[in-house]
Design brief:
It is built from 13 helices and 23 strands. By secondary structure, it is of the alpha+beta class. The strands form 6 sheets. Strands 11, 12, 13, 14, 17, 18 and 19 form a 7-stranded antiparallel beta sheet that branches. β22, α9 and β23 form a beta-alpha-beta unit.
């Protein structure tokens, strides 16, 4: 996994000189909140560009004095390898890297991952929540290659890790970014934005690294690309005091093999592997970066679509069904509500079922019927589509009524889930098998639930102590 580069390209056409301070035009967005895709663009306003906070090998970070808690992440037309032992100017790389990074952050944000990303600004920069960076590179590997093989002699290239292997490296160019253990990170007793990095914080970063890798790995599969490994960094948001994914994720950050074939690699390794850097060789590397930037935009889309159709036995069950619909929306799944009774109008129930079977859209039926659930079993016995029972049980007769959903004739296969949110999640898990965007939301939800439990446990222990 590689680093970045040195001198930068500045702010290009987005900066206008007025006196001694530059001004730039950007969109106002709250510091701790990223704007969702498709949201109405905020009113543009002219703001001063503050002092340069830091400069890395491939980017510069600037204060935004008029946007509290935000910074500008400015990419450079620079490519480096070996802690900048090799570095070259690559015209257009800033725009290519910015496109890649902003698409990746948008995908992760919409999935539910907490990131510093706020909004893309122009071709070569994006606005981010200001963070105090934790000086650790977290590396997640699915396939053994590169430096891992040098540090682990005897392991053959191509060895696959299940689950993905997590490693961490302390960011120190002079020491060539030494590998650290969890114990070293905890004993360092780092404190950023008032948050001390202890066992809980290390566990959160480790679990987040795996989840982020798996989301991106799943997202690249429809493009027939194997995400081999990846490096990321975290920071502490100075406003929310939360650990968030920060810095950038671009084509410098991972190994990407089309068709799982290393010889087709499209990432920065193609630059590292150059025996001699010539203009022709740099053009080849640039074409690889452009190839990735073009395809990374496709990660925000899916060719697989589906829907949930909730059939209720009575309109009195509408409140229960609305909860299912709301939970489906959280996963990005369209949901339609219909009223039909398998007891009082079986012909209409089957007609509605056939209506949804006939248009070719993958569908999960959710049957909502309480006192005597004939709806789910009738649907299940007459369709090859998945059917889920989600009965709205009453306090008086619920313990008896539920048996009409649980005890089914042979040949029927409709599970019963009492929670409306659980029924929506079950449908999402079905669609997630072929839709990476739905799967990403599921994976992110699982991570965020784990983090909330971890933080609750830490808070309780602190109160007890």
């Amino acid at each position: 996994m590689g680093g970045g580069g040195a001198a930068g390209s500045g702010l290009g056409n987005t900066v206008h000189q007025r006196g001694h301070l530059p001004l730039l035009r950007l969109c106002l967005v709250p510091a701790a909140q990223a704007a969702p895709a498709g949201a109405m663009a905020p009113v543009a306003t002219e703001l001063k560009l503050g002092k340069k906070i830091s400069e890395g090998k491939t980017k510069e970070v600037y204060e935004l004095p008029d946007v509290a808690g935000c910074v500008l992440m400015q990419s450079k037309d620079q490519i480096t390898a070996g802690n900048a032992a090799r570095k070259d100017h690559m015209e257009g790389k800033a725009a290519i890297s910015n496109t890649t990074a902003t698409c990746v952050f948008q995908l992760l944000h919409e999935s539910g991952i907490k990131t510093a990303f706020v909004r893309k600004h122009g071709d070569t920069a994006f606005i981010a929540a200001q963070c105090e960076m934790i000086p650790i590179e977290w590396v997640c590997r699915r396939i053994a290659t590169g430096s891992f093989l040098k540090r682990n002699p005897g392991v053959k290239e191509g060895y696959k890790f299940y689950p993905p292997k997590i490693e961490m490296f302390y960011k120190d160019d002079a020491a060539n970014d030494p590998q650290w253990s969890e114990e070293q990170l905890i004993e360092a007793k780092f404190c950023f934005a008032g948050l001390t990095i202890g066992q809980t914080e290390v566990d959160i970063m480790a679990h987040s690294t795996q989840a982020i890798f798996e989301i991106l790995e799943k997202s690249w599969l429809p493009q027939n690309c194997t995400l081999v490994d990846m490096k990321i960094e975290f920071g502490v948001n100075i406003t929310t005091k939360e650990i968030v994914l920060a810095d950038v994720i671009d084509n410098d950050s991972w190994r990407l093999w089309p068709s799982g074939d290393r010889s087709q690699q499209k990432d920065k390794q193609s630059y590292r592997d150059l025996k001699e850097v010539t203009p022709e060789a740099l053009q080849m590397v640039k074409r690889n970066f452009e190839w990735v930037a073009e395809r990374v935009e496709l990660l925000l889309k899916t060719k697989s679509h589906g829907r949930v159709v909730v059939l209720m036995g009575s309109s009195s069950d509408l409140g229960h069904c609305e909860k299912i619909k709301k939970a489906c929306a959280n996963f990005g799944i369209p949901c339609e509500l219909r009223v039909t009774s398998a007891h009082k109008g079986p012909d209409e129930t089957l007609r509605i079922k056939a209506e949804y079977e006939g248009d070719g859209i993958p569908t999960v039926f959710v049957a909502v019927a309480g006192s005597s659930n004939g709806l789910g079993p009738v649907l299940s016995g007459n369709t090859s589509y998945p059917v889920v029972n989600c009965p709205p049980l009453s306090a008086d007769w619920g313990s008896q009524d539920v048996w009409s959903s649980l005890r089914l004739p042979s040949g029927l296969g409709c599970p019963t889930i009492l929670s409306p949110e659980g029924a929506a999640q079950f449908a999402a898990q079905i669609f997630g098998l072929s839709n990476h965007l739905v799967w990403a939301k599921l994976r992110s939800s699982m991570l965020n639930t784990w983090i909330s439990l971890k933080q609750a446990d830490k808070k309780l222990r602190e109160c007890t102590l």
